[in-house]
Amino acid sequence: MSQTITVSPPQEIKLFQKWSFKDINVKDIGLQRYLNLTPMVAPHSMGRHEHQRFRKARVNIVERLINGLMRGGKNAGKKAKATNIVKETFEIINLRTGKNPIDVLVQAVENAAPCEDTTRVSYGGVVYHLSVDVAPQRRIDLAIRHITSGARATSANNPRSIQETLADELVLAAAKDIKSAGVAKRNEIERVAQSSR
Residue 81: exposed, middle, or buried by beta-carbon count in 10 A (0-12, 13-18, 19+)? Predict the structure, then answer.
């Protein structure tokens, strides 16, 4: 008596068992190495990246957004709460645009990442501002910081929830809309850097 064993094809790993990482491309060449899109179900690396320099480039971009939401104040250290906020935000983005929310997030980070910044140079007792290029890792850090702080500022003293404001921010940033706090901040930083070339 012989038994036939059927092997099912491997299941695709989806974020929150819903959103696929397939067919998502990073158009900005400078950010391709640092914008991590490794498929995972739950974006939680348990802080393994923090003990080594530049290791956060291997952290999934969704987890980096969640970590950005935990910044200071009442949400500091509450990763489960921040994860639920992002989960609900992704649902809202999908309902509004019909697109994959991971793709919207990647486009938003690309559009909100400043390419130029200024640094202070002291020369002969006089401080000058000098235009410098921004490292790709810092570009992503700044983009996420501006997007999350913009969403947090909009939801403060406002009947709208942080989920709605974050969804708005990501959709506007993905469309390169000037109403997005992240895109507005990028334009401001680059304008100041251009004037101090």
Answer: middle
